[in-house]
Amino acid sequence: MKRIAASFFLFAACVAQAAPTRIDAEYQVSKAGLVIGRIVESYERNANAYVIRSTTSSEGPLKLFLDDSIVLSSEGRVGPNGLEPAVFEQKRAGNNSRDVHATFDWKSGVMRSQFRGESKDVELPPGTQDRISIMYQFMNVAPKGETFEVPMSNGRKVERYTYQRTGEATVKTPAGDFETVHYERVVREGETRAEVWLAKDRFNFPVRVVFEDAKGLRLEQSLIALKAR
């Protein structure tokens, strides 16, 4: 594997289009072609501050026996290197035992995580993104080169993700057809595979995302609607 020359946030801060200050997006989530969920997201930037909220709800056959929702939220600032999370939260309507609250102390280089009544400090590498901010980072700092690395946090720990560009493709979604750049996570055994397709004429916004865990569970996220200003 190629050696990573620099972290994600040392890339040139260039984007195909000026990043919008407000985005409302919807995705459908499917498994083996069957729609099982819907994601409703909002992103808002006010000067140098941002807020993101993402709600995933059960839909279709899944809702008949598991009517649940998960809310992810991220807020922080927008700096020269893009999004810098300050607070990340995960809340689940049907099971709050897995709720997570994390704060990012960039001066100290520490993420403080609260989970199941316990608190711990985790090393915070420069450029770390949380589970939802990463989806909106691409429009602020576009990937440059064939491979890039980004530290990722789920609010409990921080892991380094390496992505490799695998080409370009026309992606068909319920929201329309998009010319995209395709990136795939470089994984070791036991790690979750991830793929993302970024729309070249929609400020590098993710229009399709695929996750597959080590047990073979594969979920696809496809864009339904997108409004930006």
From TrEMBL:
**UniProt KW Signal keyword:** yes
Full protein name:
DUF3108 domain-containing protein
Q: Any idea which UniProt keywords this protein has? A: Signal
Q: Pfam families from the entry?
A: DUF3108
- Tell me which positions the record assigns to the signal sequence: 1-18
The answer, when asked if Signal is one of the entry's keywords, is yes
Upper lineage? Bacteria, Pseudomonadati, Pseudomonadota, Betaproteobacteria, Nitrosomonadales
Q: Which InterPro entries match?
A: DUF3108
